Amino acid sequence: MTGEMMTPDPMMKPSRLVEPGPLVEPGPPLTPDQAVRYSRHTLLPEVGELGQRRIRNAKVLIVGAGGLGSPTIMYLAAAGVGTIGVIDPDTVDDSNLQRQIVHSQADVGRAKVDSARERIQALNPDVEVRTYRERLEASNALSIVGDYDLVLDGADNFPTRYLVSDACEILGIPEVWGSLFQFDGQVSVFWAGRGPTYRDVFPSPPPPGAVPSCAEGGIIGALCGAIGSVMAVEAVKLICGVGTPLLGRLLVFDALSMAWREVKVRPQPGRAPVTSLVPAEPVESAEPVAGIEPGTLLRWLDDDRQVLLLDVREPVEHVVGTIPGAVSVPWSGWRNGPPAALLDVLDGRDRAEVIVVHCASGIRSEQAVRLLLQDGWRQAVNLYGGFAAWAKEPRP
Hints:
Radius of gyration: 23 Å
CATH topology of the largest domain: Rossmann fold
Number of helices: 14
Low-confidence stretches: 6-18, 280-285
């Protein structure tokens, strides 16, 4: 979906950019029904009948059918984009419905790409829909991305973001990128050879766990519509070759103050061009910590096994529920190691005791387990999937 936010260098200056022409050649003349359907587009001098034929002839890949993918899918389908590809390996969850408007209650448990396909076809039967219920990997990225004129990146993780950027750079395809977190959004257009790429603006990913996901930090649902709509507008502009795209400009939106600002960005001088797909190297690598599945923890608790449960979510996150018996030690107090509140809990306990740590999805708790292991608590383990996975575990 969405989630991670990074701050670019506000001192970066724009490069001399090449204004792109239309990205797509016009398709066949519009039918009478299409002329009526898209009349509000064709009335615009910048678009006209020729521009709408370009839109009808365009092939756009949308990475992620989540918070950003939802509004872009719907607006591009309504605009009459001829072919829309949607790639997403996930299924619809109840927690998605607060913002992922392409899905409905009846879609919970279904593949997101199947739900998205039905919504597109219901909105505009003229659109050809291609779906990929898989994760974008180095092994499939070039073959998938290479079939499209334009990519909209609404991914919810850093490896996919870098992979999308690298594939687009190799293939010479423009990318419309967006990112969300809490009340903040960012959007830009990346296009190697005509402006910066994602790697120019964000050279390397942050350390694992340094940036909370939307599942951990939260997000205001309507923000997805604000940023996703801008992404859809940029896509139409690029297809038709009208206006000034967000090349060399990163648009930043603060929903709390209802303010937009623009940050100038440019290609990094001397950066070697991407010529092959390789996994993005993390800033710091670490061996995965030991963990247990929610079902295992449930059996332990049913058997009255001696386990210390630590909940590192923030108190406001407890509204969705808690694991019985868990001790709350919020992650915000762990920055310099185990906090004083935890030391009081651990005082006098056997360091060989099993400690199960959980957060919302397993990211912060993994970092907490590392700190406990460093402090000598040898049996500290992470709860895989966090509270979200625990809540889905079937009970007798």
